[in-house]
Amino acid sequence: MMAKSDSEWNKRVLCSDGNCIGIIGADGRCRECGTPYDGEVPSPAVETHTDDDGVDSIPADQQMTVEDAPADDYAAVGSEGSDESWENRTLCTDESCIGVIGPDGRCKECGKPYPG
User: Fold this and answer.
1) What are the CA-CA distances from residue 114 to residues 30, 109, 110 (Å)?
2) Which of 55, 51, 44, 50 is nearest to 10 (CA)?
3) Dist. CA 70–CA 80, nearest whole Å
């Protein structure tokens, strides 16, 4: 797959939800979260190709695997014997942040302290 041209990037219709990173597909819904677009969908979204997810393909020999990731960046979330799981995580109090609270009581993404 080739990289998108500037004109293709400019034709994207972003999700109405300011906290989402998705784009609107031909069906008028966000491809990431499924939220319907607020109002009438601008025409560029209708031209969106359903087989193109907007991400360039990376050759298999260049793709990063779990083993390649630094240990501190890829914690054993949800794995057996892990003290950290999806159900037990505490999300950052900043709703625009995607981070979780670490053992030091601060968000791993933005550094904001957890008030609890």
Assistant:
1) 31, 12, 11
2) 44
3) 19
